[in-house]
UniProtKB/TrEMBL annotation:
Belongs to the glycosyltransferase 20 family. Keywords: Coiled coil. Gene3D superfamilies: Glycogen Phosphorylase B. The keyword Coiled coil applies. Residues 304-331 form a coiled coil. One of its GO terms (molecular function) is alpha,alpha-trehalose-phosphate synthase (UDP-forming) activity. It comes from Caldovatus sediminis. The keyword Ribonucleoprotein does not apply. This is Trehalose-6-phosphate synthase. One of its GO terms (biological process) is trehalose biosynthetic process.
Length: 468
C-alpha cells in the first residue's frame, strides 16, 4: 500500500452511514457499503457514526460510543416510528426501488418522507457535538441525502467543514428519479456537499443532468465516479486458507465431484434471484440432460429488510421456486439447489467461492456488486472458475473476462452456465487474469483514496460529460 498522504495522516475521517458494522459479530454484515468501507479504513483515525441496528421507544439523542483501535463507533437507536417511516418507509420502500429503476413498486407516503427528514436532522444534531474542526466528513448512501445540508444548517465549524457524499447504489435517469415526489428537495440537499461520488460514469452522467436541470449546475461540477472495491489481496489470501479448512472439506465431500455453482446475495428483489433460479432450472431441463446430476447450485441469500412487504413476497416466491426445482429434478442422492437464507462468516464464503466452478451474479440492477469482485479474488490462479455476470451491475464495467448476460433472460443464464461449465482451462485462465487485474487495481483502497483526494486535496473533477 502507498503511504497515507499528509492530509490523511493529520485529519480524522468521520464516516456517516445508516449501517454500522457490529465488530462483535462473526458473520460479516451482509451489504456492500459496510464491506467496502471496512476494507478501506485500515490506516487512519476514524469515527463511524450511524444507526445501532436497535429499535427503541424513541430515537436516541446521544450516541453510544465504542472504541476499537483507531476506529470509534458512535451509534444511535431508532425509535419505532422513525424506523418505520425513515428506514422501512422512505429509504427502503421509496428510494431503494426507484434508484434501482423500479418505479412500478416504489411507494410514496408524506409521513414517511417527513420521518426521513426528521431522522436526518436528528443524526446531524447528535453528530455535530462530536466533530472536531479539522475532521473530514464522508456521508454514505441514499438513507442520508439531507445529512450534509443539516450539518451546514447546524452552523459553526460544521458549516464550513469539507463534507463529501457517496452513493453506493445506481443513480437512474433523471426522468425516473424525478418521478418520485420531493426528489427536487433531495437534489438541493446534494448541492450542499463539496464532492458527490457515484459508482460509474453512467450514474455520474444521470446525476449531473438531474442536478443541472434541477437548478444546481454548480453542484453538477462536483460529481465524480469512483468504483467501490474490495481488499482483493486480503480476500484472495483468506480464500486460499479457507479452502484448506474443515468447512471446505465438508462441502467438497458433499459434492461427490459434481461441479459447484455459487450465488451470494442479500435476499433482495434487485438481485434477480427468481430469474436466476428459473435459468438454472432450464439448464437442468435442456442441453440433452447432460447437467442432470452433474452440477450443484449453492445459493446464500441472507434475509434482508424482512419487514418490508416486497421482501416478504420475494421470499415466498423463492421458497416456492426452490421447492419446485428440487422436487422436479432431484435424485434420491442429489439435491440440485441448496438454498440458505442466513448470513455466514466471510472466510467461509471465501473458501466456498474458491471451490465453485461458476460464480453466478445476475442482479437486475446493482450499483457495483462486490460479490462479483470477491468471486474473482477467491479463485485459484492455476484453475480459476468462471464468472457469469449481469450487464446491469456496475462491476460489469471493468470485468470484461466475465460471461456477461442479460439477467431478465433465463435462457441466456442457462446458456452462459452451460458454456461456463465446459470452458477449457486456458480460456478460464485468460479471462480470470483480466478480471483479477481489474479487481486488484480498483480495490477498496483505490476507491476511498480517489474519493478522499477529491474531497480533501481538491483534486480536479471531471467536466460534465467527461471522465472522472
Ligand atoms: P449489496 O451491497 O447490495 O448487498 P454487494 O454485492 O455489493 O451487494 O455486497 C454484498 C456483501 O455482503 C458482500 O461483501 C458479500 O460477501 C456479503 N454477503 C452477501 N451474502 C452474504 C451471506 N450470506 N453471508 C455473509 N456475507 C454475505
Ligand atoms: C446496500 C446498500 C447499503 C446497505 C446494504 C444492506 O449495500 O447500498 O446502504 O447497508 O445494502 O442493507 P441494510 O438495509 O441491511 O443496511
Amino acid at each position: 500500500r502507498a503511504a497515507a498522504t499528509a492530509a490523511e495522516r493529520g485529519r480524522r475521517l468521520v464516516i456517516v452511514a445508516n449501517r454500522v458494522p457490529n465488530p462483535r459479530e462473526r458473520a460479516a454484515s451482509a451489504g456492500g457499503l459496510a464491506v467496502a468501507l471496512q476494507e478501506a479504513l485500515a490506516e487512519r483515525e476514524a469515527l463511524w457514526f450511524g444507526w445501532s441496528g436497535q429499535i427503541a421507544e424513541a430515537t436516541s439523542t446521544r450516541p453510544r460510543l465504542a472504541r476499537h483501535g483507531r476506529l470509534t463507533y458512535a451509534t444511535l437507536d431508532l425509535g419505532e416510528g422513525d424506523f418505520r417511516r425513515y428506514y422501512q418507509g422512505f429509504a427502503n420502500a421509496s428510494l431503494w426501488p426507484m434508484l434501482h429503476y423500479r418505479l412500478g413498486i416504489a411507494q410514496f407516503d408524506r409521513e414517511d418522507y417527513a420521518g426521513y427528514r426528521a431522522v436526518n436532522a436528528a443524526f446531524a444534531a447528535a453528530l455535530a457535538p462530536l466533530l472536531r474542526p479539522d475532521d473530514t466528513v464522508w456521508v454514505h448512501d441514499f438513507h442520508l441525502f439531507p445529512l450534509g445540508a443539516e450539518l451546514r444548517r447546524a452552523g459553526g465549524a460544521a458549516a464550513r467543514r469539507r463534507i463529501g457524499f457517496f452513493l453506493h447504489v445506481p443513480f437512474p435517469p433523471r426522468s425516473v428519479f424525478c418521478a418520485l415526489p420531493r426528489t427536487e428537495e433531495l437534489l438541493a440537499d446534494l448541492a450542499a456537499y463539496d464532492v458527490i461520488g457515484v459508482q460509474t460514469e453512467e450514474d455520474a452522467a444521470h446525476l449531473r443532468e438531474a442536478l443541472t436541470r434541477g437548478g444546481h449546475p454548480e453542484a453538477a461540477r462536483r460529481v465524480g465516479a469512483w468504483a467501490a472495491g474490495i481488499d482483493a489481496k486480503g480476500f484472495a489470501a483468506m480464500a486460499e486458507r479457507a479452502a484448506r479448512g474443515p468447512e471446505a472439506a465438508r462441502l467438497r465431500a458433499s459434492l461427490v465431484r459434481r461441479a459447484l455453482v455459487i450465488g451470494v446475495d442479500r435476499l433482495d428483489y434487485t438481485k434477480g434471484l427468481p430469474h436466476r433460479f428459473t435459468g438454472y432450472g432450464r439448464l437442468l431441463a435442456g442441453f440433452e440432460g447432460r447437467h442432470l446430476s452433474a452440477v450443484t447450485y449453492l445459493q446464500f441469500a441472507p434475509v434482508s429488510r424482512a419487514e418490508v412487504a416486497q421482501y416478504q413476497a420475494l421470499r415466498r416466491e423463492l421458497d416456492e421456486l426452490t421447492g419446485r426445482i428440487n422436487g422436479q429434478y432431484a435424485e434420491f442422492d442429489w439435491v440440485p439447489l441448496r438454498y440458505i437464507t442466513r448470513a455466514v462468516a466471510r472466510t467461509t464464503l471465501a473458501g466456498f467461492m474458491r471451490i465453485a466452478r461458476v460464480g453466478l451474479v445476475t442482479p437486475l440492477r446493482d450499483g457495483m456488486n462486490l460479490v462479483a469482485k470477491e468471486y474473482v479474488a477467491a479463485q485459484d490462479p492455476e484453475d480459476p472458475g468462471v464468472l457469469v455476470l449481469s450487464r446491469f451491475a456496475g462491476a460489469a464495467g471493468d470485468l470484461e473476462g466475465a460471461l456477461v448476460v442479460n439477467p431478465l433472460d433465463p435462457d441466456a443464464i442457462a446458456e452462459a452456465l452451460d458454456r461456463a461449465l465446459s470452458m477449457p482451462a486456458a480460456e478460464r485462465i485468460a479471462r480470470w487474469r483480466q478480471m483479477m487485474d481489474a479487481v486488484t487495481t480498483h480495490d477498496a483502497t483505490a476507491w476511498s483514496r480517489g474519493f478522499l483526494a477529491a474531497l480533501e486535496g481538491g483534486a480536479a473533477l471531471a467536466e460534465p460529460g467527461g471522465k472522472a
